[in-house]
Design the sequence.
């Protein structure tokens, strides 16, 4: 039996009782079903999803489960909808919500922390924990859409108002889905200290996060900015986003020396590591100068060995980040609104919602040089 709704709706945006949603069964098994539309509680809104991007983490969730956790376990066969990089239109307001209006275009962060634990009070709501008691507990205020609660591969989603960022009218739906991606690198650079104007930055791995890492670093005044990868086509996009130099490791006998040839023998000030491989991590350590800082923005899939003695001897700092914490998305979207960089260069393909399996295949296999794939509703 549905609970009575005491919030606000509008005749301009009629809300159906059910919607189309992809749900995860066994690993790599998605089914399109009819699902009940959830209505927002206080401090929440209902978003009609207009676009959702595919992230590499979605591929991990669909195939393996982690970092998704539903009801304290793996997300398989629990009526769970993955997907987390979405934007849309506000179509219903929870009781007492006055920060947004029906009809607002918004893009969303993934995480809404419990607001009670030590980390949430520090602004680290992507690491909400409270000793494990609140993470994943909707009744405690925690949501991580696409990880602990339903995500965006569907038509409607409930979001806490703290996760919403208004989108300007001249920003496309596709570009708006990239705000979280840009926000992730903004969070990483914030944790490294944020004061990178005039400092050298190396980005390893020209995926979506790495490419927008170049853009954000350059917008913050870093120089030189160096992008390292293995695909010339992506390195060329990196140049358009602000990279002063690009290095293809396939063409470099010693990529560490190649970096030092550019920035000087002491090495680079910062590295944003977006590849997540043992080789890339050790390269990052060896190219960083004494007292320099490394941001780990990728998820290695297994334990790896790194050169800890060199880090200790040279006072090198290493920071792991999770997602888009400390309201970094709000800072990233300002750069995008000011046209400081063109995030849409990372968007390569668009599919309809009913074509999600095909879109996932393109993303997983990088068909047709796919980088960021966006899913739109049916025509």
Sequence:
């Amino acid at each position: 039996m549905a609970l009575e709704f005491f919030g606000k709706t509008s005749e301009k945006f009629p809300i159906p009782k059910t919607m189309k949603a992809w749900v995860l069964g066994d690993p790599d098994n998605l089914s399109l079903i009819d699902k009940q539309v959830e209505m927002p509680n206080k401090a929440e809104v209902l978003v009609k999803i207009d676009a959702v991007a595919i992230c590499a983490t979605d591929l991990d969730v669909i195939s393996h489960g982690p970092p998704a956790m539903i009801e304290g376990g793996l997300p398989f066969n629990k009526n769970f909808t993955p997907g987390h990089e979405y934007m849309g239109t506000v179509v219903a307001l929870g009781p007492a919500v006055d920060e947004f209006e029906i009809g607002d275009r918004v893009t969303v962060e993934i995480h809404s922390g419990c607001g009670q634990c030590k980390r949430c009070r520090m602004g680290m709501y992507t690491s909400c924990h409270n000793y494990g008691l609140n993470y994943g507990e909707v009744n405690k205020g925690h949501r991580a859409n696409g990880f602990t609660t339903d995500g965006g591969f569907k038509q409607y989603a409930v979001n806490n108002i703290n996760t919403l960022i208004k989108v300007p009218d001249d920003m496309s739906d596709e570009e708006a889905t990239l705000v979280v991606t840009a926000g992730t690198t903004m969070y990483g650079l914030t944790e490294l200290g944020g004061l990178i104007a005039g400092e050298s930055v190396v980005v390893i791995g020209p995926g979506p996060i790495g490419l927008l890492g170049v853009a954000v670093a350059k917008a913050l005044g870093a120089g030189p900015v160096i992008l390292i990868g293995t695909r010339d086509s992506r390195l060329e996009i990196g140049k358009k986003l602000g990279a002063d130099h690009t290095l293809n490791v396939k063409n470099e006998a010693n990529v560490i020396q190649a970096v030092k040839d550019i920035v000087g023998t002491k090495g680079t000030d910062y590295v944003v590591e977006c590849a997540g491989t043992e080789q890339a991590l050790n390269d990052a350590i060896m190219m960083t100068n004494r007292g320099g800082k490394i941001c780990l923005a990728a998820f290695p899939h297994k334990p790896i060995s790194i050169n800890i003695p060199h880090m200790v001897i040279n006072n090198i700092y290493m920071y792991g980040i999770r997602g888009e914490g400390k309201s970094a998305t709000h800072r990233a979207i300002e750069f995008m609104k000011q046209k400081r960089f063109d995030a849409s260069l990372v968007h390569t393909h668009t599919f309809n919602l009913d074509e999600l399996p095909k879109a996932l295949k393109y993303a997983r296999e990088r068909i047709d040089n796919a980088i960021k794939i966006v899913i739109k509703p049916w025509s």
The CA atoms of residues 283 and 292 lie 14 Å apart. Residues 8-110+145-167+342-376 form a domain with the Quinone Oxidoreductase; Chain A, domain 1 fold (CATH 3.90.180.10). The mean pLDDT is 93.
